[in-house]
Queue: 2 jobs
Job 1
Amino acid sequence: MSSNSSSKELQSSMEDIIKKKQYENFDSWVTNFASNLPNIWNENSAKKLNLKIQNFEKEKNSAIVIGRGPSINKFEHLKLLAESNYQGNIVCSDGILSNALKAGVTPDKFPKFFVVTIDPYPFVKKHYEDEIIKSYGSKIKGIFTVITNPEVVEKARDAEIQIHWLHSLFDYNEGKKSFNNLSALMIRAKNIEHKLPAIQTGGNAGTAAWFISWQILKCSTVALIGINHGHEEDDPLETIIYHNNKEELSEGVDRDSITFQKLYKKVYNPDFNCICILDPLYQFYSEALKEFISRSPDWLTTINATEGGSIFGDRIKSMKFKNFLEKYEI
Amino acid sequence: MKTNFKKEENIISKINEKEITDSEGEDLTQKEFEEYIAKSGAKGSFMVYRSNNKDDELGLDEI
């Protein structure tokens, strides 16, 4: 068996395992959706966001997707962006929103400003609790999956973030009785025209933000910063083991085990001449994002300006963020 | 700062992806990944959508 087909089989197995684990939370997704439904009936579909793009010219429309990977601080990318004259869309994953605003990446400077929430768990609320979000909330367009925990959306609503809804695809392939289809029917029950986009999340907010940038905002150029999908070599051990979520991830990883080095794999990124470390979740995220970029439409250019991490390869153009800004800020 | 993996600054320019793969051993197995996910909980993640209609995997305009 070739290493390529073996790698695809492993990715497929990883996806099955994650899916099984995620389905343990299925009941809470349904509960979240039921609680959100009255608001979904009255609030906007994320589909409306592309209708609001004035003088739409796909070939001139670009976005910067901001994740919270370690390169974002290492290369002061938020500061660089805040000091730029970039005119395009800013699409923040929820975990970096407050840091971006504090760094001067605000909707006052960048009016086309979006934040994305995909995870359906209550802990995401912390991403919307910082006081600075209230200062800019009314100018931020929030994009939420219909299974977002209602307390999370309420926190965003309290900050006056403009709520827009979409479906996160997970079982639509199962037909009429799938949750994706049933929830869409319930949303359209009061207004048959109230349809929502349904996106591939790729398992995390960063990848979902990349999809939103071209699928919904119709940007033909999408740049990535802070999308390492991996750790830096000099990140603290605890950060690596706990995948940035010390309070949520367990103590179950045996760092003396013979499988430790396989669990935390080193990968050389030839585009940025650096090494990054992928924990098993990042291996899963990274393979998925790279696959989807390679399958994206020809009219889309994906530029990795993260300056590190594991995202390189087919259809991915890598450049320093400073160079991206020089090229695209007008 | 506490670090764990020895930095390889001096050799980065000399190595390539294959050498890294070879030097770092075999890929993770399904069993090892499953054990990690069982222990870690994988919170903060969501699943990848797969369909027989491969175009649908890239998203749907509206449903």
Job 2
Amino acid sequence: MKKSKFYPLYFVLPVLLVYGIFYLIPITFGEVYAFTNWNIYVSDIKFNGLDNFKQMFTDSSTARIFWRAVSNTLYYAFMTLILGNIISLMLALALNKNLKTKSILRTIYFIPTMLCALAVGLIFTAVYNPQYGIINTVLRGIGLGNLTQQWIADPAIAMNSVIIAGIWKGVGMTSLIYLAGLQGIPGEYYEAAKIDGAGKIQTFFRITLPLLISSVTINLFLGFVGGLKVFDFVITITKGGPGMQTQVLATMVYKELSAGRYGMATAYELVLNIIIAVLAFAGLALLKKREVEL
Amino acid sequence: MELQTKRGTIFNICLEIFLWLLSLTILCPIAVVVVNSLKTAAEADYLSLELPAVFQFRNYVEVFQKADVVRCFGNSVVITGVTVLLCVVLSSMAAYVLSRNRNRLSRFLFYLLLLGLVFNIAMIPTIKIMQSLKLMNTLTGLILVYTATSVSFCVFIYHGFVPTISTTIDEAAIIDGCSPLRVFFQVIFPLLKPVNATIVIAVFVSIWNEFRMPLYLMNDPKRWPITMTIYNFCGRYSSQWNMVFADIVLVTLPIVIIYFLCQKYIIDGMTAGAVKG
């Protein structure tokens, strides 16, 4: 049977058209500005080769912020990826059990995902408030007053506070994807495992996890890329501060853009995109390989 | 055997209690928002969980009037609804063909489409293209940009699930003389139901909550989606938590209601379990 006749390429055409015009063409032309001196103070845009990147990597003050932003971006991405996925998977396993209040619980855990990132940022600004915020109030209330923190103003923990907000919002969606995967596993497999006398842990690693691998791939890939692109929570909760302590690459793009240095902003964007591309596709290749092996 | 099921029940009860305790980490911040949205500005300064002395329902009336909530809600419904529809139909078609044709071209197109998951949209060139197509400041333009930025995620998800539907199903339909479009829409598409449910929620939530695109692409407040009201509102009332919280509740409420209305379908769609290995 000739395959292309039954799976014709015109099925792909509408997507390619919209995607090409409104996404691919703009990003292709957009990157060119990274090699120009374009800013609001000059009238003619000139190519300046690698000057923007030279400044980014070598100029002492810029370079310090740049490397801080890179390490913050990676730290945020890895922390939300690992903690977020562990919590989501455990939550999905629990919510897949035959519980009485299953559907109410599922709804509650999905609420943060339904909120707009802007709203989540504002909510956490309130929750972290050192005087009246709910976290410090509860800590004082249960006699652990010495554990209260300046959640946003303390440079040592500000980044972690942003990470908590990111996980809080992300878990609903991630666990929903795991839940969908869990429900695709035929019940007979578990019965067979039970008859064969497999323990709970063995069943999880030999049946659940391998059959869940496409959900795992989806969640790890999307979570990692989303983490590297983090912007909303940083801009709403810490605004990159205190100082430049919690700047990430996406907020640097925004910072340069609002300062009117469009060329430099695009250069930051290009660096971010290259980091994402290299790490995400390497990770995806690794995951796909495992998927085949299993 | 009986002992084992009994132990299972006790375990489930403990698990349920634990899940309810854990859910406080979500319910408490939400309660702070709801309770404080009903207080006076001075009371709301304390961000406490105490009930207000007098319930200030007028906050909501004020937000309603000042933020043009009804019109923006309508815009959001149109923008989100059409985008979700386009994403579901177009991406499932594309993913089906790209997944079934295991050749070099399909693989190339699939990875080309995945780029959208990786790179952020470039705002300035997009604005230029929108201007030349006369789509600036139109709902159509915003919908097309949203569709372009969402299809990568959708194709990625569908592409992962299509192989779980056996090719013998399409072969049988083809032998019966169905055209490719009929094979897809009458046979394959219904089998994608659990994935469709996931896609609908994911795209709906992300587009409903998006606010950066309209910031760049829409100058006309009459065509703003509802999230822009939070953005706009926080600028003006940043020190008044009661107003900000009331607006957050108003913006979030529709999505919560839609979730409740669809919930049965969502869970049914997932438990239908058409996807089998």
